Amino acid sequence: MIATAYSTDFDTLLPALNAWVTPAEREAAQTYRQLPRQQQYLAGRGLLRWLVCQTWHCAAGAVSITRQDNGAPQLTVGGQPWQCSISHTQGAVLVAASPEYVVGVDVERIKPRKRLADLVNQYQHGFFADVTAENWEQFYQRWTLAEAVTKANQGLLLNTLKQPITHETKQAVHCREQDFMLCCYSARGTNFTLNKADL
User: N or C: which end of the chain has fewer CB within 10 A?
Assistant: First the structure.
């Protein structure tokens, strides 16, 4: 099973997550200089802990979220390592967890990018095959998929972008919420949905 949760409303989300963030995570958030980055950090950890506890009915104290050497989050539940992924941008967060299946997520704001056309042209024979620079929604679906695949594989984004796209689109779920594109990917397929957090 893969569980997901997202929010694009930090004004409501952050106060609701107070009980789901640890003192150590609050302290770690303070190492970021900018308030939006602190909020994103707290939203990611708090929402992931809330998701695990609500889905698998466990105590918050049983859920530990640390950082791996490569910077990726490491989720431990009751002392057992689980799979997880966290993505955030200003005003939005998306998390996923599973006791068994590797998963990757990404959320991006749909907006102009300086190098959008260049990226599409550069990786036209790779991950951006059949994508046009004029279709922003299509571009962001493929971009978030590339980020999610990279996180699931714990690889490098540039390597993912160079690879020809094959079955990845069939192993991912996308959702557009306001001006955000969200994606969750698992090599195990799409036996999951993207769920708006309801705290």
Answer: N
